[in-house]
Amino acid sequence: MGEFTMPSLGADMDEGTLVEWLTTVGAEVARGEVVAVVETAKSTIEVECFESGTVTELLVEPGTTVPVGTPLAIISPTAPVRPPTARGPVPAGDATATPLVRHQAAEEGVDLTALHGSGRGGRITRSDVSRAARPAPSRIQASPLARRLAESLGVDLATVRGSGRHGAVKADDVRAAAGSRTGEDHAPVVEEAFVAAGARRAPRTSPSDTRTVASTSDRAAIARLMSRAKREIPHYYLSTTIDLAAALEWMLRQNSTRSVGERLVPAALLLKAVALAAREVPELNGHWTDGRFVAAAGVRLGTAVSVRGGGLVAPALADADRMPLTDVMATLKDLVSRARHGRLRASETADPTITVTNLGDQGVESVFGVIYPPQVAMVGLGRMTDRPVAVDGMIALHPTVTATLSADHRASDGATGARFLTTLDRLLQHPEDL
C-alpha cells in the first residue's frame, strides 16, 4: 500500500491546496497519470501519481490546504488483498475511520457503528459510506470544486455536460460553460482558489481588481523566495553581446523549407544554445544542496513565464540539450500555453537545473536575474538590436543580443561564468550544430 502525498513543487513551497481530484475511489491509476490539481502560492499544477494501483481512499477534501508531505490518498496494489481471516471486518467503534470519512458520514447521515469496513484491516472507506448513504437519485455527479465554482459563477450544473468518469461534471466543464455563456475568459486561478476553499466570491467589480488580488498573492511568494536567494546566495554577474547574424540567416534558410507550423523562431535557437552550453559547462548546471554543489545528470532548462494575473512560473524542458530544434519549439509553445492557463504538471515544474529569463519581447536590452534556489545560475536574454560590428575590416549592422549570467559564487567563479558565455556565443555562430 502506498501513500500519495502533497508534493514539493518548488524550493519556496511549504504547503499546497488540493483544488480538485481527477480520480475516484476504486479507480485504477498508472504511474505518471494525472490524479489531482494542486495550487501553490504561484500557480496551479496537475500532479501525477508515482506508482500504479487502485485508489482505495481519498484522505483530503478539495479546498484543503496541507503541508508538503501530507498523505492525500491511499493507492493499493492492483492485485486484490485478502482480508485478515482471524478477525472479520472491525465495527466503526473500533476500526480506523479517518476524519474525512467521519465528516462524510456525518454529512450523508450514515451511522458508522453499523458499517463494516472493506479497507485493509477493516478500515472504513469513503466508498463504504457512499454505499450506505441515503439514495439521492436526482443528485448530479460533480466534483466538490465544480459545485462551488458553479455556485460562484451562477452556472446550473444540470445544464453542464460532464467530461469526468461516468459523466461527472469537473471544474473545467463549469468554466467552459461559464465562458460560453458570458463570452468572457474563465475565472482566474486566484478566484478558483477562493471557491475551492469554500469562500464566497466577492462581486467582481472589474478585471483589474481580480488581477490585483492575484498579483498580491503571487508577489508575496516571489518576494519570500527572492529575499532568501539574495540573502543566502553570493551572486556574481557577467554579460556579453552576441552577434546573431549567422544564426538568423541559417534560421531563415531552414524556415523556407518548413511548413508554417514547424518554422523556427529565435527563442528556440537561444534556448537550445543555452542548454548545450550548460552541458558543456556542468559547473553551472545543477543544485547547491547540503553545503555543496551537485552537478545534474542532464539539462532541465527552466523557462520563466509570466502568468495571467501576475507572477512567474518556470516550467522545465527536460533534456533540452538533446531535443531537436523542432521539438524545442513545440514543447516551449505547449508549456507556455498551459502555464498561462494553470495546467502544468508537477513533473514539468520539478527541479530545473538552470533557468532562462527572456525579456526581449518586453523591449528590455539586458536582464540580470536572481538565481532560483537550489539552482546555481540564471541566464538572461534581452531584445535583438541592430548594432555596428566589424566584419573583415568593414563596419556593418548586425542583429545582436545581450546575454547575461547570474551565478552562485559558492559553486563557480568568474572564469567559469566567462567560459559559459563564450561557449554560448560559439554555439550561436554555428547554428547548424544546434
UniProtKB/TrEMBL annotation:
Region (Disordered): 115-141
The UniProt record lists the keyword Zinc: no
Start and end residues of each Peripheral subunit-binding (PSBD) domain: 96-133, 141-178
Keywords: Acyltransferase, Lipoyl, Transferase
Keyword Heme included in the entry's annotation: no
Top-level EC class as recorded in UniProt: transferase
EC number of the protein: 2.3.1.-
Lipoyl-binding domain residues: 1-76
InterPro entries per record: 2-oxoA_DH_lipoyl-BS, 2-oxoacid_DH_actylTfrase, 2-oxoacid_DH_E2_comp, Biotin_lipoyl, CAT-like_dom_sf, E3-bd_dom_sf, PSBD, Single_hybrid_motif
Cofactor(s) required for function per UniProt: (R)-lipoate
Record-linked Pfam families: 2-oxoacid_dh (PF00198), Biotin_lipoyl (PF00364), E3_binding (PF02817)
Membrane-traversing stretches: none
Domain of life: Bacteria
Gene3D superfamilies: 2.40.50.100, Chloramphenicol acetyltransferase-like domain, E3-binding domain
Family in the record: Belongs to the 2-oxoacid dehydrogenase family.
Protein name: Dihydrolipoamide acetyltransferase component of pyruvate dehydrogenase complex
Organism: Streptomyces yangpuensis
